[in-house]
Amino acid sequence: MSEQNKNNHSEEELSTELGIAGRITKQFINSPVTPLLMMAFLAIGLLGLAFTPRQEDPKISVPMVDIFVQYPGASAKQVTSLVTDPLSRIMSEIPGVRHVYSATQRGGSAITVRFEVGQNEGESIVKVHDKIQSNLDLIPPGVSMPLVKPVSIDDVPTVTITLWSEDVDDGNLRTLAFDVLQRLEEVPDTGKGFVVGGRTEQIRIEVMPARLTGYDITLAQIAQTIKTANAEMAAGNIESGGTAYSVYTGSFLTNAREISRLVVGVKNGSPVYLRDVAKIIDGPEETKRYAAFYTGKSYEDKDVTADSAAAVTIAIAKKVGSNGVSVSKALLKRLEGLKGNLIPDNVK
User: Fold this and answer.
1) Which domains are seen in the chain, by residue range?
2) Which of 181, 206, 212, 229 would bridge 279 by S-S if both were Cys, CB 3.0 to 4.6 A apart?
3) How would you write the chain as a 3-class SS string?
4) Does the model's pTM come out above 0.70?
């Protein structure tokens, strides 16, 4: 009897030393419910891993807004004093703004407004718009209406795809890239996409000054002729036999042949066509920047080599709140389906 009392006394002392946490742990060590709870917690963790969006950057709200202003003809010094500095001061007055950055060049300015961490993105954009609208009377003559573009971390592309070829030029690659981008943006939860590199298709008119002098034609006449010809306007409606018809005058210019046949003047009673005083070139624009593709020693396909091959890059972001990993896998899967179909075999 004394031995049993001694054991009970020892258990009471041990229970007192363990405290509340220790006593709870002691109950769970020998409880049959513990394995069930462990399995439940493991299942909850796996569900959380499957449904939680995964992305490179943390999900925090740091609103940023870009403001672009054009001041044609003004020097960088004039743009700074009349546009950049006043607009920067006005933006710094907005509650919640942490920093205001600016970059000025001849004829224009770009201002970035960064708000404090945790500020609501929608409310921050509205604050910027309201501040600009309430100060429109301060805009100097000749300055364009400010263009406001919000920037967020979700605008950063999650997938970039480079199309390159030894046989196709960068102009045709750019056209192909936009077709591919349109197909890829059909994937659910994709965000903003854009194409980098390549030359856009355009009709370029290279005027010959000696010909202009000989025909007594000015550049202003040529510009006005093209502007007038490249227009389509509604002339009215005609009703006949219970049917209504819309009448339009003029039409838009669609190719170099139509442009070359425009009459820009008259010389000795004969019409002077645009092709008589200028070269009309239908093709890629003049090169402003060039993108190329090279293969190095670590390139996965040793049988394929590229040395300054024409290339363009497609960049696609994900939608806000979506899973970046699953969106990226879906985009790459759709890209594989376009190979040999929309993307020809001579484009890698």
Assistant:
1) 64-151 (3.30.70.1430), 155-200+288-338 (3.30.70.1320), 204-284 (3.30.2090.10)
2) 206
3) CHHHHHHHHHHHHHHHHHHHHHHHHHHHHCCCHHHHHHHHHHHHHHHHHHHCCCCCCCCCCCCEEEEEEECCCCCHHHHHHHHHHHHHHHHHCCCCEEEEEEEEECCEEEEEEEECCCCCHHHHHHHHHHHHHCCHHHCCCCCCCCEEEEECHHHCCCEEEEEEECCCCHHHHHHHHHHHHHHHCCCCCEEEEEEECCCCEEEEEEECHHHHHHHCCCHHHHHHHHHHHECCEEEEEEEECCEEEEEEECECCCCHHHHHCCEEEEECCEEEEHHHHEEEEEEECCCCCCCEECCCCCCCCCCCCCCCEEEEEEEEEECCCCCHHHHHHHHHHHHHHHECCCECCCCC
4) no
